[in-house]
Amino acid sequence: MACDDYDDSGGNGDSWAPVAAKILIAGGFGAGKTTLVGSLTEIRPLRTEEDLTGPGVLTDTVVGVERKRTTTVAMDFGRITISEGLVVYLFGMPGQERFWFMWDDLAYGMLGAVVLADTRRLSDCFPAIDYFEHRQSPFVVAVNCFDGSPDHQISEVREALDIDAHVPVVRCDARRRALCRDALVTLVEHAAAQLAAGPPTPSTQPASR
Ligand SMILES: Nc1nc2c(ncn2[C@@H]2O[C@H](COP(=O)(O)OP(=O)(O)O)[C@@H](O)[C@H]2O)c(=O)[nH]1
Ligand SMILES: [Mg+2]
Questions:
Q1: Atom 14 in ligand 1: which residue has the minimum CA distance?
Q2: Which residues have any ligand 1 atom within 6 Å of their CB?
Q3: Which residue's alpha carbon is nearest to atom 13 within ligand 1?
């Protein structure tokens, strides 16, 4: 686990800091990453949003997400306190292929990832799933429920994504804090179980795709 558990009390144990964990929020363009980080964070989120422009449709297709008006041009960042002893730093991983060069740096030292899946464009989350499977990093899939999107069973989404049976798949709504928090807790529990089971979990090692 990526953590900074320190005691600056000079050894008398009076002072302590919570464990800090780094969690990535991944998924395709328009899957809800910026929304989820904004729903969860207790600090003002760092956002790098820019308006979608006409020429941009050549690279960022909005088919299926026609109401999307902006795009993240670097990453999202936020923080949430899960419990007295655990603070999570959230990093939204830009999904488009032109940003894949950033993924290794963002993933360095992470505890795990939440991959947001949009059932209207399910294949858009394949690269993120492939990436975390390849790294053998803990991840969960959160099926983001958009208005009017096909209401697939979780088992159908799991089958369509062809992910291992041990990887949790949960329902989410990136606009609802409680559901986002549940997804994070599922990930933390899954990561703890994976770490307890022992190697291989080279999640602190940069990996190339
Ligand atoms: N109905 C619905 N809309 C959502 C949800 N999550 C995000 N949106 C909307 O979908 C659009 C794209 O979300 P955004 O967070 O920018 O996606 P990103 O590209 O993954 O960062 C925005 O207009 C959001 O308001 C959700 O769970 N349900
Ligand atoms: Mg975004």
A1: 32
A2: 27, 29-35, 65, 67-68, 72, 144-147, 173-175
A3: 32
Q: What is the mean pLDDT of residues 4-24?
A: 65
Q: Which protein residue's CA is at the shortest distance from atom 12 of ligand 1? A: 30
CA–centroid distance, residue 28 to ligand 2 (Å)? 9
Q: 131 is in which domain, residue-wise?
A: 19-196
Q: What is the dihedral of CA 112, 118, 122, 124, to 10 degrees?
A: -70
Domain membership flag for residue 42 = yes
Question: Would you call 147 helix, strand, or coil by DSSP?
Answer: coil
In angstroms, what is the span from residue 174 Cα to ligand 1's centroid? Answer: 7
Between 50 and 94, the higher pLDDT residue:
94
Alpha-carbon span 62 to 79, nearest angstrom = 29
Q: Ligand 1, from 24, 25, 35, 37: best to mutate by most atoms within 8 Å of Cβ?
A: 35
Asked if the structure places residue 46 within a domain, the reply is yes
**CATH number of 140's domain:** 3.40.50.300
Nearest to 27 by CA among 128, 152, 170, 130: 128
pLDDT of residue 29: 86
**Does a cis peptide bond (omega within 30 degrees of 0) precede residue 138?**
no
How many domains is the chain built from?
1
Most confident of the ranges 29-43, 46-60, 139-153? 29-43
- Within a domain: 32: yes
